[in-house]
Design a protein that fits this description.
The protein contains 9 helices and 3 strands, in the order E-H-E-E-H-H-H-H-H-H-H-H. By secondary structure, it is mainly α.
């Protein structure tokens, strides 16, 4: 593992306990990037509820510089570290996918469903989410037999998309009784490949995703707080 000196990534601690990182798609993106670049980084867990000094997380501190809080700037700084191992895909279609390509609206549609308080509109919002998931599934199927968006190894767009799909899979099921349709084989195989469930020997790609993924309990507890609804798993420990 390359040692780049004093690099610290401040991330939210779990809302269940202070010993594991919380449910934050941006934090997971950046942690995945560091694993894939094989760069040593200090991860500092911050209690976002009690902290008076750091209210905007994640934040990246390089050496003696002030912490950087803007996600786009953090992403760019990580890319500059170990520049011989860029994480942007060589394929612009893949780089643009998560912003304006097929299924780029999945997380937005999921948020609309998750935060909806009118049960009468849930089915319409589920249909909107399915439409976005279907577009993503079609794209992923078109890329067979490669494992990930840009090929056999994770790239930056994967670091953006996979944490979002993890939250969709966990939260939509618990709060809205919604499962990603079984016939969306492309999405399921994509998640399985990142989780090491494809029967292959775990590699740095699987490590990057699994080591940085919060538990289902942590994800559900965080979302219950954001949505201001009871935690159905009843495992909340912190006030």
């Amino acid at each position: 593992m390359a040692d780049q000196g004093d690099i610290t990534l401040y991330v939210k601690a779990s809302t269940i306990n202070d010993s594991e990182f919380g449910a934050d798609v941006f934090a997971q993106r950046f942690m995945m990037m560091f694993v894939l670049k094989d760069v040593r980084v200090n991860i500092r867990l911050v209690d976002a509820i009690k902290s008076r000094n750091m209210k905007k997380l994640p934040a990246l501190k390089l050496f003696e510089n002030d912490p950087v809080e803007d996600p786009a700037e953090i992403e760019a700084l990580i890319e500059k570290i170990s520049p011989d191992h860029p994480l942007r895909s060589a394929n612009d279609e893949v780089n643009h996918l998560v912003f304006k390509g097929a299924g780029s609206g999945v997380y937005h549609k999921f948020n609309q469903l998750a935060k909806n308080t009118d049960p009468n509109t849930d089915e319409r919002l589920k249909a909107n989410l399915i439409e976005e998931l279907a577009a993503l599934d079609t794209f992923l199927r078109s890329k067979k037999p490669q494992r990930f968006l840009g090929g056999e190894n994770l790239c930056l767009p994967d670091c953006i998309l996979l944490p979002k799909l993890l939250h969709i899979k966990v939260v939509a099921k618990v709060f809205k009784d919604f499962d990603i349709p079984e016939d969306f084989e492309g999405i399921h195989k994509y998640l399985d490949a990142a989780s090491g469930k494809e029967g292959e020997t775990p590699d740095i790609n699987v490590e990057a995703f699994t080591r940085t993924s919060p538990s289902d309990e942590v994800i559900v507890d965080a979302w219950s707080r954001w949505m201001k609804v009871p935690n159905p798993l009843q495992r909340r420990k912190k006030p």
